[in-house]
Specification:
Largest sheet: none
Strand content: under 5%
Shape: globular
Length: 302
Amino acid sequence: MTADTGVTKAPPPGTSAKPERSLGARLAEGVSGGLLRVFLIVVGLFWLVPTIGLLLSSLRTPEDMNESGWWTVFTEPAELTFTSYEKLLENGDITDSLVNTVLITVPATALVVVIGSLAGYAFAWMEFPGRDWWFLAVVGLLVVPVQVALIPIAELFGKLGIFGSMIGAILFHVGFGLPFAVFLLRNFFAEIPRELLEAARLDGAGELRLFVRVVMPLGGPAIASLGIFQFLWVWNDMLVALIFTDSGSQPITVALQTQVRQFGNNIDVLAPGAFISMVVPLAVFFAFQRQFVSGVMAGAVK
C-alpha cells in the first residue's frame, strides 16, 4: 500500500498534457462559433428587410403597390419595372435636389476634413499660448445641441445675406462638424511617435511639409472615418436643410418631404427617390469600410 504524496505525475515522454475542459467551456465555444454566426446573419437579414422592401417597391407600379405588398414579387417577378425611375428622372424637383445634395455634402465634408486635420495637428504637436484651454473650449462645443443654434445663426445669416442658400447650409454643417473633427484627429495625431516627427524636422521638413508628407498618410484611417461620419450626417440631414435652404437649393431629404406633403399619393416618385437617397451613403460606407474600421480601432491596441 503506497501513500499519496500529492505530487502530480508527469505525462509520458512524447505526449502533451491537455487539461480537461468543462462542459460550460465547450458550450461557450460552440455558441461563439457556428450558432453565433447564424444569429448574426439572421439579424443582418432582418436589418436589411426595409432596404430590400424599398428597393422592390421602387421597381413596382403604383397599381401593384396598392393591390399587394412588395413581397409578392418573389412569386410574380413580372411586376418589376423601371417605370418609376423613368418618372423620377422626369421630375425636375427631385433631380435638382439630388444635385443640390451633392453640392452641399461634398464641400461640407471636404472643409471639415481639411480644417479639422490642420487644427488637430496644431493642437497635437504645435506649441502656442493657451493651447490646452483652446482645446477644452473645442471639446465643450461638442455638447452644444444643434437646435439651440438654429435661430441665432439664422438671424446672423440673414444679416449676411446668405440665409436660404446652399452657402448657409454648408457653413452650418462645417461649424457643427468641426468640434468632433478636431477632437477625433487631435487624439489620433497625438499617438504618432515623436521620434518620427523629429527625424523629419532634422531632414529639413517644415510644418506644412511635415503635415502633408508624414501626418496625413499616417492619419488616413482616422481621416477616412471622419469623412464617412460627416458625409452621412450632411447627406441624411433634413432639419438644417429645412431651415437654411429655399426651394431652389433644397436637398433630396427636403424635396421628398415636400412631395409627401403636397401630393401624398405619388409613391411612384417617392419610392425610387427615397431609395437613391439611402443607397448613396450606403455605397460610400461600404466603399470605405476598411478605412472606417481601421480608424475606429486605432489606438485600441499598440
